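hey so u asked for the seq, here:
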Amino acid sequence: MNALTLTILVSFVACTGAVGLLTWWLTRRVAHTSSEGFFLAGRVLTGGYIAGSLLLTNLSTEQLVGLNGSAFADGLSVMAWEVIAAFALVMMAWYFLPRYLRLGVATVPQFLEARYSGTARTIATLIFLLAYALILLPIILYTGARGLTDMLDLQSVLGIESERTVIALVVVFIGVLGGIYALFGGLHTVAVSDTLNGFLLLAGGLLITCLGLAAVGDGQPLAGLVELYEKRPDHFRSIGTAEQSVPFSTLFTGVLLLNLFYWCTNQQIIQRAFAANSLAEGQRGVLVAGVFKVATPLILVIPGIVAFHLYSSEGIPQDQAYGRLVRDVLPAPLAGFFAAAVVGAVLSSFNSVLNSTATLFSLGIYQRWARPSPSEREVIRAGKVFGWIIAVVAIVAAPSLVGKESIFGYLQKMNGIYFIPIFSVVLVGMVSKRTPAWAAELALGLGVVAIAVGYFVPPLAKWVDWMHEYHFLGAVFGALLLVLAAGRALAPRAEPWQWPAEAPVEMRPWRFSRMMGIGIIVMIVAIYLVFAW
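ran it, structure tokens below
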């Protein structure tokens, strides 16, 4: 092992170990022996931890590698995934979060049970579990392994010729470490480690942006940005064309709906908002995260444009562009620290999904069907065992993604299969008090089947490609709303559903929530207008 490799390894281990030790110290007095303590952090999370955990659970290598890869190909228009997310967070703070907290639920399927039926809860739980095991977790592991392999040139460092073998080894490392965080520490440990790793990743991501721009501008980041804008004007247009991955028209159909689901009804993300100690703290955390989402294109899009400027003539695959940029511009002594930040980001997303998986299984399957009256210890143990099973499934599945052309585009496409049906029934459940349970159950099953058939059955798949898959998701969403409306018209509930009079937490809104939400929306519109031409 040469001196450079040893330096990288020592700095990586030191940084990763420091985060783990500090996380243990900050959470050592938190009780994880009750289901509320393990799955909802005892409902004690404040706005700072909620914002940090929301950001880093989302901000991982599928964004660093995948979204920068999309920016390499399509430029600034792909910022839609980040900027429109800020709008979705405003909707979460203003509309969805107060209703979740009033019910005091730990999972989205629990909301569906309270609003519709136990069957709706079971269907949604199974959809979430299958999607997390077969889609989300393998992609998180693969993109993490892909990023580390390219950033640190692990094939050369480890002396292994097979790229698939190297990626498989890194996948196992991340999967085991993430499982330890999530399944031994609970949600509070996840939230604290997310926040600590978030500072590392944001600092490291901004450093890569500055160093990349400096490489373009002969050591001057600002000069590099000016040169990049002058020489690559097509890559600085916010309005996506029909040939690009995010055409502008899709911002109002599939892109908007995918973001609304992700930030308002996705168990993996919003579980930390469920753990808020009050509505005000929950809104503060969600809206602070929204402000940061408007700024994240600085680390998730600009580096991809820099990489296009530097490497487009070399014909490298788009999802390897970010790793190549990091390897070229980052000083060797900092490589280990940035690798630790990347691993922290991957762990954040991975262990958050695992914790949500354990929560969904324990409270939605085990407690309801396998063992109706279990002890708190049995509920937690069942979640941990199931979490490890899902972790192993994801570890085995992740290497099969090697060779995908655009991993971020693949992720968004596959997410639509379960995002759209669940969001439709949650939204209607909040808006309408008389929509019956059978209509929600039908919409959940019908939506998953319709989108899967549209994606994978050849005659229909060609039609979906022609109209664009995000418009197809919008069309399915509209159809599901019609199904739910028809159910309400044909056989409405005998009595309108009522929200509970009391909530388990303080429900006074944050006094700045309205003003801050409006400010975020104004920033979104301004960004699109400034870069429209």
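Residues 32-42 have pLDDT under 50 and may be disordered. The radius of gyration is 22 Å.
lmk if thats what u needed
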